[in-house]
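Dear colleague,

Thank you for sharing your sequence with our group. We've completed the structure prediction you requested, and as agreed, I am returning the results in plain text so they can be pasted directly into your records. Please verify that the sequence below matches your submission; if there's any discrepancy, let me know and we will rerun it promptly.
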Amino acid sequence: MQKMSKRLKESLKDFLKLGVITAVIFVLTNVFVGELMVISGSSMEPNFHDNEQILSEKISYRFTQPRRGQIVVVKHPTEKGRLIIKRIVGLPGETMLISHGQIFIDGTKLEEPYMPLEVDSEGRNAIPTGVNFKIPENSYVVLGDNREDSIDSREWGPINKNSIIGRTILVYYPLTEFRIVTF
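Please find the predicted structure tokens below.
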């Protein structure tokens, strides 16, 4: 009986150690390697939907620059502690113009193969329609894919590179929507 009790205590101790190690690995991974998020709202439809769960990696931007078309997790510029996902549309140093529902970068119409053809982009407070907007160095213009229902850089201006947490690489839930993000 005492042998069994000792074995049980050792098993519980091993289980507790394993739990602590797992928790530490999870926290370190979440802080330094990846970010798990749940999509909230419709600003990224039709490509991402409310309640989908995504994984974003945090490592690549330490070695490379963000690219146009990538889906990024960013710190919300006006709501401290809130993270959002948006698509990079404008890069540092470029001139952006929104005109007749289209986006132009340095005078060339932006091709967005990830968007439905009927998408109409309109300017807002920070990046108005019909005005050439010079994107500051080390800053990016990020927009939601659902341009009519997205609060984004058109409203609050470009975001600094330091506000980018990571690049979205995977939708993992619901399982029926599992996919690798290719942009």
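Summary note from our side: Residues 2-33 form the longest helix (32 residues).

Kind regards,
the structure core
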